[in-house]
Amino acid sequence: HHMLTRLLLPYIRKDGRIVTVASTAHTFGQLDFANLNYDQEKSERGYSAWNAYGQSKLANVLFAKGLDEKLKEAGSEIKSVSLHPGVIGTNLWRYTPKW
Question: Where are the alpha helices (H) located in 1-99, listed in sequence order?
Fold first, then answer.
């Protein structure tokens, strides 16, 4: 997101918006900066698809929020927001038990 946003930012209208797709899954995301890739040798934190998804969505929310703060500090009228598009049937659901 960061690089693409940096490349596009000069072309965004002064009253434009940057929308980052997130998820309510960000609420169970945790960022372990010493072990972002779930390396078993660095930590006992085990990998799960849902935990990795939550981590990525938390990173998206924090990116959007941080970018909005930086844009405001620079005096820009461009807004940065994140959104949850709703539940979508992706392959991630294959890791969810059937009810």
Answer: 2-8, 49-73
Of 11, 38, 47, 53, catalytic:
47
SS3 category, 94: helix
Residue 47 bears catalytic tag: yes
CA R_g for the chain? 16
Distance, CA of 17 to CA of 47 (rounded, Å): 34
What is the spatial distance between Cα 53 and Cα 26, in angstroms, rounded to a whole number?
8
Is the pTM value of this prediction over 0.90? no
Quote the tokens at residue 86: 């709703």
Q: What is the pLDDT of residues 60-97, one digit of tens each?
A: 999 999 999 999 999 999 999 998 877 766 676 666 66
